[in-house]
UniProtKB/TrEMBL annotation:
Designated name of the protein: Diguanylate phosphodiesterase
SUPFAM superfamilies documented for this protein: EAL domain-like (SSF141868)
Transmembrane segments: 12-35, 250-271
Origin species: Legionella impletisoli
A GO molecular-function descriptor: cyclic-guanylate-specific phosphodiesterase activity
PANTHER family in alphabetical order: CYCLIC DI-GMP PHOSPHODIESTERASE PDEF, CYCLIC DI-GMP PHOSPHODIESTERASE PDEN-RELATED
Keyword terms of this UniProt record: Membrane, Transmembrane, Transmembrane helix
UniProt xrefs under Pfam families: EAL
Span of domain EAL: 278-532
Length: 534
């Protein structure tokens, strides 16, 4: 069928509007849930990373404590700084590279013995405090270090750990982490802080001037606090930068966006294709009905017993404005679905009555066969107008055969249809079940309908002589029709072998290309007058 171009109906613009609206709404919902998921995943990631750092710090402190307490000289009571004690402290530092110095001091913060001779006292530190203190310098030349104070009887043992060692322990591989803070919740101060370099993303020590207070930490959208069990009042605070999180999750958002747009686009194209087909075909059918572009063609039915044509099946054709002829397969389903099949049928019936007026008048036993669907039976005015046409053109009910497909019966076999069929039969119209064998109607089911003809579908006729299962079925259908006392019409007969088989089985009404194809009225009349098959 040639595609016709029409102005786009409002349905297209409504489709575009709703597609954009639904796509936008769907994107908002998707991104809202993704945002919530992002929040949860970020908190979970920070929880895992901060706890991992906390465990690392605990393990480090425990290892240091175990190493220090294993010094033999310290396992007994310390009294004075002898050379033996100093040597033990020096050996402990030498054997553990993580320790930069050891010192024993009294509770007045005075160093009594140390691994370094020039070690300086860290001023301003609480000599009785336990935990992490600093930063300090063990000597004037040393790098910054932190002190872990441990009780030693009446004395205190200071373990000096270089700041850079602690910096490395605080580092995490989590891409979400932007800063890690060792925070003293007693003094409400950051003890140690590292941060990522903005360019390289490597960890580096934060200047003390950048150390965050808890008020500043709480201003961040993403942070997590974990306790350090081995150090009193010390917490791990891990901070994430929202900008970095957005960068890390950008690819996921992009993939989600593209997936939604792709699916939405496919749905839109499918709907557009459907509506384009529906509206263009629907409008074309409406236009064709308006301009009466549908016309009848006639396929004769031959009676082998009478050796003449006894009727025709009236078939519908559509001639476009470009003079193309369109077969029913291209439009009949849409016409039935939209109800346009009724005005099309009325046009065909009227034209057929008009064109066959003399034929029907001169041959009172000649009939016209019309195909009906459930839409005709459910239409409030179809049969009223149909009977008016019969009266107008003086066509008797006995000259009409109404054909209803088995599929239509099974799909729409309502009591109202059965009632109307019985009324038509009582008025003298003939009824045929069309395309029989393609559905699943049983004998008991068919007995409810007042048919007097059965048309065998072409599918079974084609199988004659092939040995196929459908050939056996065709014999069964013939037997079924006889049991129901139905006159049989064989459709789609195309060969002499098929004719002989049907004749042998007692089927004498034949329709098909073997005798004649469907033809317009100007070919039918000469054909009827001049051709007979012996």
């Amino acid at each position: 069928m040639t595609q016709h171009k029409f102005r786009r109906p409002g349905g297209f613009y409504i489709l575009i509007f709703f597609w954009l609206l639904l796509t936008s709404l769907f994107l908002i919902i998707i991104f809202y849930f993704n945002w919530n998921k992002e929040q949860l995943e970020t908190q979970q990631e920070l929880f895992k990373a901060s706890n991992s750092i906390s465990h690392a710090v605990d393990n480090f402190i425990n290892d240091i404590q175990n190493s220090v307490y294993s010094i033999p000289i310290l396992s007994s009571n310390f009294n004075e700084c002898t050379s033996e004690v100093r040597t033990s402290l020096q050996n402990a530092v030498f054997n553990n590279p993580l320790i930069s110095a050891l010192a024993i001091k009294n509770k007045e913060n005075k160093i009594l013995c140390a691994s370094l001779s020039d070690i300086t006292t860290a001023e301003g530190l609480n000599p009785t405090a336990q935990g992490l203190l600093g930063p300090v310098r063990a000597t004037k030349e040393d790098k910054p270090a932190y002190i872990i104070q441990q009780p030693l009887g009446n004395f205190i043992l200071d373990v000096y750990i270089l700041k850079q060692v602690l910096d490395q322990i605080l580092e995490t591989r989590s891409p979400y982490a932007e800063m890690v803070v060792l925070y003293n919740n007693q003094s409400n101060k950051a003890v140690l802080q590292i941060e990522r370099n903005k360019q390289s993303r490597h960890w580096q020590a934060s200047p003390e001037s950048h150390y965050l207070s808890m008020n500043e930490i709480s201003n961040y959208a993403y942070f997590y606090i974990a306790a350090v069990d081995s150090l009193k009042h010390i917490q791990i605070v891990l901070i994430a930068e929202p900008k970095i999180i957005r960068q890390l999750t950008l690819w996921h958002k992009l993939v989600t966006f593209l997936a939604v747009v792709l699916v939405s686009g496919l749905v839109y194209l499918s709907l557009r294709r459907f509506l384009n087909h529906f509206f263009s075909l629907h409008r074309a059918i409406v236009n064709a009905v308006k301009h009466e572009r549908f016309f009848p063609v006639f396929q004769p039915v031959y009676d082998l017993n009478k050796n003449r044509y006894i009727g025709v099946e009236v078939l519908t054709r559509w001639r476009t404005e470009h003079d193309e002829v369109i077969m029913p397969d291209a439009f009949v389903n849409d016409a039935e679905r939209t109800g346009l099949i009724v005005p099309i049928s009325l046009q065909i019936i009227e034209k057929a009555f008009k064109e066959c007026r003399h034929l029907l008048a001169n041959h009172r036993d000649f009939y016209l066969g019309f195909n009906l669907s459930a839409a005709h039976f459910s239409h409030h005015d179809f049969f009223h107008r149909f009977e008016e046409l019969c009266l107008t053109f003086q066509v008797k009910p006995s000259q009409i055969l109404l054909e209803i497909t088995e599929r239509e019966l099974i799909s729409h076999g309502e009591p109202a249809i059965t009632k109307k069929m019985k009324q038509l039969r009582s008025e003298g119209y003939s009824l045929a079940i069309d395309d029989f064998g393609t559905g699943h109607a049983s004998i008991s089911y068919l007995r409810h309908f007042p048919f007097n003809y059965l048309k065998i579908d072409k599918l079974f006729i084609t199988a004659i002589g092939t040995g196929a299962v459908t050939e056996v079925l065709s014999h069964s259908i013939i037997q079924l029709a006889r049991n129901l006392k139905l006159e049989i019409i064989a459709e789609g007969v195309e060969s002499e072998k098929q004719v002989e088989y049907l004749k042998e089985k007692g089927v004498h009404l034949i329709q098909g290309w073997y005798f004649a194809k469907a033809m317009p009225i100007y070919e039918l009349m000469p054909f009827m007058n001049g051709v007979k098959h012996e």
